[in-house]
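Technical appendix A lists one of the benchmark inputs used to test multi-chain prediction within the project. The record comprises two sequence entries:
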Amino acid sequence: MPSQSPVERVFREEAGRLTASLVRLIGDFDLAEELVADALVEALEHWPRDGVPDRPGAWLLTAARRKGLDRLRREAKYRELLQRVAAIPEVPRREVDDRLRLIFTCCHPALEREAQVALTLRAVVGLTTTEIARAFLVPEATMAKRITRAKRKIVAAGIPYRIPAGAELGDRLGEVLTVLYLVFNEGHLATSGEDATRQDLVQDVEWLAGLLVRLLPGEPEPLGLLALIRLHLARWPARLDEHGQLVLLADQDRALWDRRAITDAVRLLGRATALQRPGPYQVQAAIAAVHCEATTWEQTDWRRVVGLYSVLAALDPSPVVLLNRAIALGQVDGPAIALTEVDRLSGLLDGYHLFHATRAVLLRDLSRDGEAADADRRAVTLTSNAAEQQLLSQRLVE
Amino acid sequence: MQYMVLLSRSEWEDKAPEDERNRIFGEIQQWWGRLAAEGKIVAGHQLQHPDTATTVVLRGGQSTIVDGPFMEAKEVVGGYGILDVADLDEAIAIVRTFPSPSGFAEIRPVVVR
């Protein structure tokens, strides 16, 4: 992981926290973001010279408050906002962390999924609109419009700025985790483009999942998701070869895996399971852990993997989960049985490149090379990720 | 905040047997009455069948009369209510308990001037 300077670390922690407080206090997303930007600029002028203050959050809030008053006094039409900015306490309450409210607001089910993702990265993580647009390969203007529309809807539709309680928390936390998982997947394996991976995006989501764990320590699923992300990051150095091409799990150099990170992530998963409320992210992390703890591909405890996929399928009966279960089953009961399972999913997964890539592998194991090549060709036409295309085409040549 | 809840007219209103229909309408009436008493519903009506609708088309000072509703949608409006609640979450929580076996309910904030 790239090392960050103390100022950068403080910025990352405090910028989101400050945005969250200001949104709560003044109820205006755009103004809150502008004031945070102003306060950070001021910090950049002072901190490198004078050092980071003892309570950077309080320092930034004070700066934002002053900037806000300056800005609004110049424009008479903002009288109401001016009152709210003036009411910002000079010394913030230390114990409250408004970021949890902000996360739930950004991931509110009344916002479409893409807007939830964009807004969370913008407001909570502090990425710029340009960075988010680049990460999702969307024109900047489109992304800006998406974010603006979402912010406007939050205010106009009265989407509250609160942490859901009771029975509601489970559903709403599910929304948040889905958003994080989408960002993780986008970073882990970009859906298109030249770079196979976007490590920075994965690191952002790792930070966000860690934040969620700190803010909701009694919830097992954020722990599960954090463990899952960290288990993937631990294997990161082995994922690409020297030409930037994807290396399959079976072929990865396991000496490159970060053993310490794996041990830590497994311990994290232990904390989640101790809470005795299983969920799909915990099970996915458990599967990743089985892979991480195996010394070789062949030594993998495949029976346990199949069992865990069965548990996952019971929680989340999606065809992709069943496809993965079939792949693991192939390692236990052989390719013929796995192929039967896979072919059962053809109606649901015909448009999914990994369905055809999986069939290709199994057909080749069964020495049905002609059919295998056909399946590989189908897979190539279906993926837009250049590194994956390369891997699949390479297999066609062999 | 005030929200208008636009309720769709559902299939059961035309197709369910009469005693079933009466039972559901009874539940809706009770639900509505309770929320009105609590001050959460401040206005609203059930609307008659869309066959009874008349549409006036306004075009540059000219107007024409058309028989039927103006929305050419599969779903038609069956009624509406005005909610007076704290925020969208409260509106959603209330609408979720609307005792109709099926249908849609669109929640839209009203413009305050």
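The radius of gyration of chain B is 16 Å. The domain at 2-109 of chain B is CATH 3.30.70.1060 (Alpha-Beta Plaits). Comparable benchmark entries are summarised in Table A2.
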